[in-house]
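Our consortium's second objective concerns turning raw sequence data into structural hypotheses that experimental partners can test. To show how far this objective has progressed, the report includes one record in full. It was chosen at random from the queue rather than selected for favorable results. The single chain below, 425 residues long, was entered without modification.
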Amino acid sequence: MRAFGTMQPLMRGGALTRRGLMAGVSVSALAAPSIVRAQGQNGVALVIGNSKYQWEAALPNVKRDAPDIARAFEAIGLKTELVLDATRATMEKALESFKSVSQGVNFSAFYFAGHGASWARKAYLVPVDADLSTPGAVDWLVPTILTGASNQGVHRLGVFDNCRNNPADGWRQVQAQRGAVVNENRTGGDSLPKTLVMFSTAPGRVALDGPAGQNSPFAAALMRQLDAPTVDLRALPGKLRRDLLIATEGRQVLFDRSTLQDSLTMKGARLPDAANKSGWAADPSKIVDLPNAYAFARENRFPIPEGLIAYRPPGASRDARMIGSFKYASRYKIGNTPGLMIVMSIEEGSTAEIILAGISEIGPFWRFVTAKLTGGQLEFVPRDNAGKQIWAWKDASSGSLSVFSESVGGQDNKPYSTTFTRLDG
């Protein structure tokens, strides 16, 4: 679901949230690119923006985001249909029409902004006439399936700017959080070919909304990326992820799934007032690039998504030494393996946003988690319920990690300890 209302740009703690994401993705090695040029006059797009809900919270910023994205798609050269405040019947009709008009084109794009939900790890789009108060509401939702041309020659872009919470679970996001590991051995086998799908934030997470009258940070970042002479869709997720992380001070990570094998370039939107309507961070001195983290990940053959950065807290934060990337040794059933932690942002004395990556018995993985800060230590329980982890800094460059196994009878088992050392920051 999405929370809404007024917010100061980049509010901490009580920041207004907007959308959680819908699905995890994997990042695979890409072959040397060839260039495919998308002809705008042979492309179509469908944009759906649901803002005025009958039974759920209204989403004022969608009224700006959806038309602005539609205008950007039109400027690229796509024949675009904009549908606002759609009931289930209207959404299904629009999707069927989109599938029909996509036949014979070489490029199709779909964008949805509004509420979303998930049951049993399946994601849904929420029509404006849906009531999410009971589990039976799932029968009233629209499955998140990227529709479009079925011919093999078409390239597809899908952008889902909505959440993956479970209303029947009190919006506690339990299922989404436990399914948030991105693993090379668990890629979706049913992905459409020549397709890029982007999600505004990670599974079980929320996305920040903009102040009234502005775009959300995600929509603004997307339009900034489209506002270029040309746009390479295969390179877009990494660039957009970095832009969004800067805009949200390291608190919102874009997820993507791509089956694009070649660079796909198309003309940019080149709008005169493109996407600068959202308050976003722009202080280069606070951005921490992560070259050593990427080198460490490549050396040990596990993936982390392109475009990650960390963001230093303002002023003389007592927790600032935690920002950056750190390497350590993980202990799994397969033995000790290299591990990577990136502390991307900190709300002093409260929480930190963390990327973890490594190799476990299920294979290479990465995940985005929130950790609790207590007394200069970082503490969290991984989303797979593998037990509690406590990170304690000895100094700015190193510290100790204690890992407790899963609780038995309400008691933590004896931990094992290892050390971690800084890579970037």
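The partners drew two points from this record. Confidence is low (pLDDT under 50) at residues 1-40, 170-175, 185-189. The CA atoms of residues 150 and 331 lie 45 Å apart. Both points have been shared with the crystallography group to help prioritize constructs.
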